[in-house]
TrEMBL record:
It comes from Aliarcobacter cibarius. Gene3D superfamilies: 3.30.70.120. Signal peptide: none annotated. This is Divalent-cation tolerance protein CutA. It comes from the Bacteria. Coiled coil: none annotated.
Length: 103
């Protein structure tokens, strides 16, 4: 069974917490970390700089599509970042934690 980190960003801490609590309560993720960041990006031919909240979501690889659907349902951005990062190494204890806390 493979584990992944899914990364997304939100424009507000409240939106990020709502997504995090939803993913945890539905057992789609075992843990979601929130971190305040500053993002510089190109949008509609303009360079933008915004404060965002980064969500680092730990879950099973097989749950990616369900996590993605839930993010898209709850997210306010037109094109939210939803990136899956494969975990190549993980401690046995943390692997067990993810398994026990996801569907």
């Amino acid at each position: 069974m493979s584990m992944v980190v899914i990364q997304t960003t939100c424009g507000s801490k409240e939106e990020a917490k709502n997504i995090a609590y939803t993913l945890i309560s539905k057992k789609l993720a075992a843990c979601v970390q929130l971190k305040d960041i500053e993002s510089i990006y190109s949008w509609k031919n303009e360079i933008c700089c915004d404060n965002e909240t980064l969500l680092i979501i730990k879950t099973k690889k097989e749950l990616f599509s369900k996590v993605q659907s839930k993010i898209l349902e709850l997210h306010s951005y037109d094109v939210p970042e939803i990136i899956e990062i494969d975990i190549s190494n993980i401690s046995e204890d943390y692997l067990k934690f993810i398994k026990e806390n996801t569907i």
